[in-house]
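BUG-393 | component: ligand-complex export | severity: low

The export step for flavin-adenine dinucleotide jobs runs without errors, but we want the raw record kept on the ticket for reference. Input record follows.
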Amino acid sequence: MSADSIRVVLVGGGIGGLAAANALLHRGIDVHVYEQAPALGEVGAGVMITPNSLRLLDRFGVGDAVAAVGASVGEGSLYYREDGSTVAPMLTVDSSGWNGMFGVHRADLIGALADVLPADRVHTGHQAVSFSQDEREAVVSFANGTEVRADAVIAADGIHSVLQKYVIEPSAPIDSGSVAYRGLVPAERVPWWPKGVSQLWMGEQRHFLVYPVRRGTLINYVGFVPSREKAVESWTAEGDVETLRREFATWDSPVPRLLAEVEKTNWWGLYDRDPLSTWTRGRLTLLGDAAHSMLPHLGQGANQSIEDAAALSVFLADATAETVPEALSHYEALRRSRTTEVQLGARANGRRYDSHFQDLAERDAEIADSARFRSWLYDYDAEAAAEEVLAVR
Ligand SMILES: Cc1cc2nc3c(=O)[nH]c(=O)nc-3n(C[C@H](O)[C@H](O)[C@H](O)COP(=O)(O)OP(=O)(O)OC[C@H]3O[C@@H](n4cnc5c(N)ncnc54)[C@H](O)[C@@H]3O)c2cc1C
C-alpha cells in the first residue's frame, strides 16, 4: 500500500463490496469494508458468473478460487418451451470461444472474495446509518456509534441501500408482477439430471431455470411465477413448496420430477427500478444493486457489480484526495450507460421468458437472436474500457 494512498470506505460486504475491495487492494489503494451483518453472508442460493466478470476476477487473483467452488456450465445448455421442445442453444462462451460460465453458490462466492482479503480490512457488525461530507473528506456513521472518515465512500449496500438517499431521491420499486421461488436440490437425489448445463423452460407468464453450483453437488433452481399475493423483496423469506409444485405440475417432466425432490424453498418478490439519473455526489458514489438494481432475467446482478468494481479501481488508482470527486464522476459516466442497457435488457428478457407474445414463433426468434446481446455482454472488458477513458482524457 503506498503511503500517500487515498482512504476508501466501502459500505456493504456483499459481492459488489468484496469484489471492489479486492480490485482496490490489487491496485495498492487503502480500503476498508463495513458490513452490517455479524458475519459475511452465508445466505442465498445460486448466482451465475459469466465471462465478462470471470476475466476480471482472474485479474484480482480470485478467478481460480471461484472456478474451484463453482460448477462449469457449457455446451448443451438450452432454452425450451414448457412442453420440452427446444427453442435455441444458450450462449455460454465469449466471442473468442472462452467458456467463463460458472454456477456458484452465493456463500461460496462471498467466501472466495473474502478469503484473500486481510482480516483487518473487513469490519462486520457495522450498520451504516448516516453520511456527511465537506470539501476535504467524508464521514460515515454506524449504528454501533463508530464514525469513519475517508476520501471516498462507496455505497455497495444493496437494493435497500441506506446511503443512496445522500446521492439521489430513491426511485420507487416497480412490482414486476412475478415472484421467484429458488432453492437447491442435492445432485445425488436427481442422478438423472444432465451435468454441466444450464436449462431454461418458458411458458405462459412463468419460466423455470436450472443450473448446477458447488462443483455440481447441488442443483440450483428458480421458478418464476405470477404473484398472487404481495411478496417482499427479500432473499430470505420462506415460500410454500406445494404452491411451487402446482405452478409447474404440467410442464416438461424433468421440471415436476426435480420439484418433487424439493424440501425447502425461498421466495422473493421481483421488483424493478428505473435506471437512476445520477450515482455520485462529491466523495460518495454507488456500486452494484445500490446503483442499478435489476430484474434477474439476464443473470447480471452480481456480474455488473464486479464490472463496477474493476472500473472503479482504475479511476481511483491515480486519484488524490482532491481529485476523488472527479474520478468518481468518470466511473459513473462509464458504468451508468452500460448498466442502464443491462437493466432494460433484463426487463425485455423477462417478457420473452414469460411468453408475453401473441406469436410464440416471434418470441423464439428473439431468444435465438439474443446470443448477439449476450456476446455484447460477455465480450466486454470493464477494466480496459476504464483505461481507455483515462487514456483519452
Ligand atoms: C442475503 C442475500 C442473498 C442473495 N441471494 C441471491 C441468490 O441466491 N441469487 C442471486 O442471483 N442473487 C442473490 N442476491 C443478490 C446478489 O447478491 C446481488 O444482486 C448482486 O450480487 C449485487 O451485489 P451487491 O454487492 O450490490 O449487493 P448484495 O450482494 O445484496 O450486498 C449488499 C451488502 O450490503 C450489506 N448492507 C446493507 N445495508 C447496509 C448498511 N446500512 N450498512 C452496512 N452494510 C449494509 C448487506 O448486508 C449485504 O451484505 C442475494 C443478496 C443478499 C443480500
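Assignee comment: Attached the raw record above. Residues 11-17, 34-37, 41, 43-47, 106, 126-128, 156-158, 162, 182, 235, 288-290, 296, 301-302, 305 surround flavin-adenine dinucleotide (CB under 6 Å).
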